[in-house]
Specification:
By secondary structure, the protein is of the alpha/beta class. It folds into two domains: about 10-135 and about 315-350, Nucleotidyltransferase, domain 5 (2-Layer Sandwich), CATH 3.30.420; about 135-310, ATPase, nucleotide binding domain (Nucleotidyltransferase, domain 5, 2-Layer Sandwich), CATH 3.30.420.40. It is about 45% helix and about 20% strand. It has twelve helices and ten strands. It has helices at about 40-45, 50-75, 90-110, 120-130, 170-180, 185-195, 220-240, 250-275, 290-300, 310-315, 320-330, 345-350, and strands spanning about 10-15, 20-25, 30-40, 80-90, 110-115, 135-140, 145-155, 155-165, 280, 305. The strands form two sheets. Strands 3-2-1-4-5 form a five-stranded mixed sheet, with helices on both faces. The protein has a five-stranded mixed sheet with strand order 8-7-6-9-10, with helices on both faces. A hairpin with a 4-residue loop joins strand 6 (about 135-140) and strand 7. Helix 4 crosses helix 11 (about 320-330) and helix 8 runs parallel beside helix 9 (about 290-300). The mean pLDDT is about 95. It binds 5'-O-[(R)-(carboxyoxy)(hydroxy)phosphoryl]adenosine (KG4) and zinc ion.
C-alpha cells in the first residue's frame, strides 16, 4: 500500500528518437535528475535524424546516461521502485536500445518494468511543471511526429479528441526551416529567426478540415515550400540572392503565425465543445513562443487554467517517462521479458490494456 509520504523513485528511460535520456522522478511530480545526451550535432550533418545512426548513438550513451541520472539523483538502484521505458511509438531501432536495456536492468536489480507510451509521457510532463494540476484536462500534444488533442481523464487514461491526418507541426517546422536554410531542428531555429519578423508579410493558408477537429499540416507545409521555391527561381533569373526578395525573419514569422493560429483555433473549438476548466500544452512544438503566447491569450479569454511545461520538459526527455511510469505502475501496468518496441502504437488502446 502506498502512503502519501512514501518515496516512490522511478527511473525513466527514453530513446524513441534522437535523445538518449534517463531521469529519476519521485512520486510522479518531483524531479531528482534529468539527463539528456542529445545527438543533434551528429544528425545536423545530414539535415535530419538518420535512424541507423540514432540507434548506434543510443548504444554508446545509454549506460553512462543512466549512471549519471542515478548519481545526480543521489540514490542507488536499490532505492528505485520501478524502471519505466518508452516502448513506442518512435524509431523502432532506437526504441529497441532503451527497451532492451531497461528489461535487463530491471531484471538485474529485481525491480518492476513499466512500459510507457511516448505521447503519454509528453502529457505527463505537465505534472512536473505544475504540482497542483489534476485531471481532467484538455491537452494539445504537438511534436515532430505527433499532433493530438487529448482529453486526459485520469493520470493514465486518455481519450483522443483529434489528431493529424498527415504531417505533424514539428515536421512542417523542420522541413520549412531546411528550405529557409536555417538548419536542424527547424522549430527552435524558426522561432528564433521569427523574432522581430513581420507576421503578415506573406500569405499562407491556415488549414482546417470541415466539420472536424482533426489537423492537417501538409498543405501549409507545401504552400510554404512552393512559395520559397518561387522566390529562389525568380532570384536566380535576376542573379540576386533569394533573400533580397524574401526576408527570412518575415517568412519565419508568417509561417510560425500560421501554425500557431491553426493549433490554437483547434484548441479553441475543443474548449468550446467540451467543459474542461484546464488546458495544457505538451511536446516539442509546445516550446514555440508564439504558440505559448496565443494559448495564454485563449486561456485568459475563456477563464481557463493553462499549464505549459518548462522548456526543458517540452522536447523529448526521460523525466516525463518516469512520471508517466509512476502513474502506470500504481495502476499495475507492468511488462516482462517479452516486452517489445513498437514503431506505431495507439495511445488509447495501449493505456487501456
Ligand atoms: O517532442 P519532440 O522532442 O520529439 C518528438 O516526439 O517528435 O519534438 C521535436 C520537435 C521538432 O520537430 C522540433 O523542430 C520541434 O519539436 N520544436 C519546436 C520548437 N522547439 C522544438 N517547434 C517550434 N518551435 C519551437 N520553439
Ligand atoms: Zn516527443
Amino acid at each position: 500500500m502506498l502512503m502519501d509520504n512514501d518515496k516512490n523513485y522511478i527511473l525513466g528511460i527514453e530513446t524513441s528518437c534522437d535523445e538518449t535520456a534517463a531521469a529519476v522522478v519521485d512520486s510522479g511530480r518531483y524531479l531528482l535528475s534529468n539527463m539528456i545526451a542529445s545527438q543533434i550535432d551528429v544528425h545536423t550533418l545530414y539535415g535530419g535524424v538518420v535512424p541507423e545512426i540514432a540507434s548506434r548513438e543510443h548504444l554508446k550513451t545509454i549506460v553512462p546516461v543512466v549512471d549519471q541520472a542515478l548519481k545526480e539523483a543521489g540514490i542507488t538502484a536499490d532505492e528505485l521502485s520501478a524502471v519505466a521505458v518508452t516502448v513506442g511509438p518512435g524509431l523502432v531501432g532506437a526504441l529497441l536500445v532503451g527497451v532492451s536495456f531497461a528489461k535487463s536492468y530491471a531484471a538485474a536489480i529485481g525491480k518492476a518494468l513499466v512500459p510507457v507510451h511516448h505521447i503519454e509521457g509528453h502529457i505527463t510532463s505537465v505534472y512536473l511543471s505544475d504540482k497542483e494540476i489534476e485531471p481532467p484536462f484538455l491537452c494539445l500534444v504537438v511534436s515532430g511526429g505527433h499532433s493530438h488533442l487529448v482529453a486526459v481523464e485520469d493520470c493514465s487514461k486518455f481519450r483522443i479528441i483529434a489528431k493529424t491526418r498527415d504531417d505533424a507541426p514539428g515536421e512542417a517546422f523542420d522541413k520549412v526551416a531546411r528550405v529557409l536554410g536555417l538548419g536542424y531542428p527547424g522549430g527552435p531555429l524558426i522561432d528564433k529567426a521569427a523574432q522581430g519578423g513581420d507576421r503578415k508579410a506573406f500569405t499562407l493558408p491556415q488549414p482546417r478540415i470541415a466539420d472536424s477537429l482533426d489537423f492537417s499540416f501538409s498543405g501549409l507545409k507545401t504552400a510554404a515550400i512552393q512559395q520559397l521555391d518561387r522566390f529562389k527561381r525568380q532570384a536566380k533569373k535576376q542573379d540576386i540572392p533569394w533573400t533580397d526578395l524574401c526576408s527570412v525573419a518575415d517568412f519565419a514569422a508568417t509561417f510560425q503565425e500560421a501554425v500557431a493560429k491553426t493549433l490554437v483555433s483547434h484548441l479553441r473549438d475543443a474548449v468550446e465543445q467540451t467543459s474542461y476548466k484546464t488546458i495544457a500544452l505538451a511536446g516539442g512544438v509546445s516550446a514555440n513562443s508564439r504558440l505559448r503566447e496565443m494559448a495564454g491569450e485563449l486561456s485568459v479569454e475563456k477563464g481557463l487554467k493553462l499549464v505549459v511545461p518548462q522548456m526543458s520538459l517540452c522536447t523529448d526527455n526521460a523525466a516525463m517517462v518516469a512520471s508517466a511510469g509512476y502513474y502506470a505502475w500504481k495502476k499495475g501496468r507492468l511488462a516482462g521479458a517479452e516486452q517489445d518496441a513498437t514503431s506505431v502504437l495507439d495511445l488509447e488502446r495501449f493505456t487501456q490494456s
